[in-house]
Every structure is written in C-alpha cells, then in structure tokens.
Amino acid sequence: MTQIDTSKVSRWDQHGREHVVRVRRAGVQRTIRCDTCGWRRGAQFLPWLKAEEHLAQAHQATVDPRSAA
Predict the structure, then answer these.
(1) How far is CA 1 from CA 4, 24, 27, 56, 69, in A?
(2) DSSP designation for 63
(3) Looking at residue 59, what DSSP letter applies?
(4) Which of 28, 33, 37, 61 shows a CA-CA span of 20 to 30 A to 15?
C-alpha cells in the first residue's frame, strides 16, 4: 500500500494575498503544485525549497506567515 502525504508552503505577496504550493508525497515521489497558477513539477529532492523559489519568482510572494510576530 502506498502512503500519500500532503503538506503546503504558504507565502504572502506585497498586496496581502496568500499563495500556496502543495507538496504531495506518494512513496519516494514528490509532486509540487501551485494553487494560484496551476504550475506543477516533480521534485525528488528539496521540494519545499523549490516551492519557495516558485512563489518568490512567479508571484513575488516572500513573506512567511510563521515569521510574523
């Protein structure tokens, strides 16, 4: 039986809009998909880093909601 897990990377742009990239894991395969634009990519290594890069480059979304105090 294949285990499937999903997590997400959220960032906010300068206009206060949230952008989310979901990381889906099925066994050793990982797929990242942007909820905003539908961009998809397979990523075996460092999928969360690739998700952050996509958010910064495609959507200028760089504000991490977890770092806001």
Answers:
(1) 10, 16, 9, 36, 41
(2) B
(3) H
(4) 33
